[in-house]
TrEMBL record:
Residue ranges of every copy of the GPI inositol-deacylase PGAP1-like alpha/beta domain listed in the record: 315-385
Secretion signal, residue range per the UniProt entry: none
Keyword set, alphabetical order: Membrane, Transmembrane, Transmembrane helix
Transmembrane annotation, as ranges: 135-155
Source organism of this protein record: Bifidobacterium callitrichidarum
Pfam family, one: PGAP1
A single GO molecular function term of this UniProt record: hydrolase activity, acting on ester bonds
This protein's name: GPI inositol-deacylase PGAP1-like alpha/beta domain-containing protein
InterPro entries: AB_hydrolase_fold, PGAP1-ab_dom-like
UniProt entry tagged with the keyword Oxidoreductase: no
Length: 536
């Protein structure tokens, strides 16, 4: 039996962009959905007729009983009423199933998604205008909503839980951020409507102040070294789901949330080389998010540079520099196909590399989780699979919705509390009331459970397991756009895993002393790669 203080969570996803059907095919399936809806309506009418028949029999039976009429030819009213009710229930169940199938078909086709996205963008523009016109008033309004969310959580859970604040403000977050960015970058309310990168322009201005302060505090010398481990942290992957699994293991190992006995620390990324059938190399780069360590290239301050609209500021972000140096040390060639998967800041790094380093690396596909990258100038040659949660603040920091193009797919998840299980009860008469199945038995396509089991309250939905559940839910739906992106990702890294290498970065005010080792043990030549390793 579920504990009242335990909460299980599930995610339902919607898909935007990444079109997988032609207009003609979509029209055909829309017609099928309409036919299913009409059939559902007819069965609902039949259910109403059977219910009415049962009520008439009930009234007739009551009348006869009241009149004390005894007739050997009297109809078996009790049996007939039960059968009428059964027929009504069956018809209503069929109606519900048909209607649900119709809605699922339209959802998978993205018929509603495009309209919802257009409405969302108009709403964001309105919130942006209100924010730039009266920033103080809008800020107070956001604060009031956040306080309301906090109080709601207090009533629901019996404790203060800040996670509910983000849920309460989520509809307004993108518009508020774009309006604030417009003010910071000195854009007028009307000028702001001509662009979507107000936040990025504001981040560029903020970086002019934050970057020097960050460099003064932690230094600007980036020290990258290869580290080794016997633990199987980031394993072989041929799917987006598998890549997310490796990202989860690496991210949580370095934060101490899981213990894989790897010895890997913070600011560590993984670079894997796959060998294709034709002998060419393909690469998967796994980049976790912010770790908040004072000497880490993945500290908090780097996010402002990564979000800048200035490509040079993005290129100078420490986290980008670390990943680029690791890719160089790993030996990625300019023609080798590369896929990058990243969470939070790691996803912004992936978008920045795809935007600004295509002259050195052939980035074919990036997968991001909870990363605000809507305004990064990612070329059409790079496929983008973005997974976001509706009430996570981080993904909304770009102040805009992601582009909905064939090569840019966004899977958006909505988190809700999952039903808990109840015990089956055997009555004294021998009948049984079956219990409901808990989270692990959620009906397919309704929602997907979040891994990790019960929690003591609402969690921050920015944790990676929520993005994993969101993507899995879209896969469960059989969405063609998701399948199309999945196939492209698999094709990029299709092959046999040959090596997994880990690279760690540290910032310092003085360069650490390097020790140089040659692969061949001979004098350096053009063909001998030099690997720099730094002494602590």
């Amino acid at each position: 039996m579920g504990n009242d203080n335990e909460y299980y969570w599930q995610v339902e996803s919607k898909v935007y962009g990444g079109k997988g059907y032609s207009t003609a095919t979509r029209e055909e399936y829309t017609a099928v959905a309409k036919a299913l809806d009409e059939a559902a309506g007819e069965f609902e009418k039949l259910a109403t007729v059977w219910n009415a028949t049962r009520e008439q029999l009930d009234n007739r039976h009551a009348f006869i009983s009241a009149c004390n009429t005894h007739n050997s030819s009297m109809l078996p009213y009790t049996v007939l009423k039960v059968r009428c009710q059964n027929h009504a229930d069956t018809c209503r169940q069929i109606s519900d199933d048909l209607a649900r199938t119709s809605q699922l078909l339209l959802k998978v086709l993205g018929v509603y998604s495009e309209t919802e996205l257009s409405v969302k963008r108009l709403f964001n523009e309105a919130v942006q205008f209100g924010t730039t016109a009266n920033w103080l008033g809008m800020t107070m309004g956001m604060g009031t909503l956040a306080l309301g969310g906090l109080l709601f959580g207090l009533v629901k859970e019996g404790k203060l839980n800040p996670s509910w604040m983000s849920t309460a403000t989520s509809p307004f977050q993108e518009g508020y951020m774009s309006g604030t960015g417009a003010i910071l970058s000195k854009l007028s309310p009307l000028t702001g409507f001509s662009t979507t990168d107000e936040v990025n322009q504001g981040a560029g201005i903020l970086s002019l102040l934050s970057a020097p302060l960050k460099n003064a505090a932690q230094g600007n010398y980036l020290n990258v070294r290869e580290v080794t481990t016997e633990a199987d942290v980031v394993r072989s992957s041929q799917t987006v789901t598998g890549a997310f699994d490796g990202l989860y293991r690496l991210a949580n190992e370095r934060l101490g949330k899981v213990d894989l006995k790897s010895g890997l620390g913070y600011a560590t990324i993984a670079v894997q080389r796959y060998e294709k059938e034709d002998g060419k190399s393909a690469w998967l780069v796994t980049v976790p998010g912010t770790d908040g360590q004072s000497d880490s290239p993945f500290d908090w301050e780097q996010n402002a540079e990564l979000m800048s609209s200035d490509p040079e500021q993005r290129r100078q972000a420490d986290s980008v520099r670390l990943v680029i140096e690791a890719m160089r040390q790993a030996g990625i060639g300019e023609d080798d196909e590369v896929a990058i998967v990243g969470h939070s800041q790691g996803g912004i790094v992936a978008a920045s590399i795809a935007s600004d380093w295509q002259d050195e690396f052939n980035v074919k596909h990036i997968v991001t989780a909870g990363s605000p990258i809507a305004n990064h100038p990612i070329p059409e040659s790079t496929w983008v699979t973005s997974v976001e949660i509706q009430d996570e603040l981080v993904a909304a920091l770009d102040g805009a919705s992601n582009p909905a193009t064939p090569n840019w797919l966004t899977v958006s998840g909505s988190v809700s509390q999952a039903p808990q299980g109840t015990e089956s009860i055997i009555n004294s008469d021998g009948s049984c009331n079956p219990g409901s199945t808990p989270i692990n038995g959620v009906t397919p396509y309704d929602a997907t459970p979040v891994a990790g089991g019960a929690t003591s309250g609402k969690e921050i939905s920015h944790w990676l397991q929520y993005h994993q559940a969101t993507y899995q839910d879209a896969l469960n739906q059989g969405n063609p756009a998701v399948q199309r992106h999945e196939a492209h990702f698999q094709n990029v890294i299709k092959g046999e895993l040959k090596e997994t290498r880990y690279f760690e970065g540290r910032m310092s005010k003085e360069p650490l002393e390097p020790t140089i080792s040659l692969e061949s043990g001979t004098e350096p030549t053009k063909d001998n790669k030099i690997i720099l390793k730094y002494e602590e």
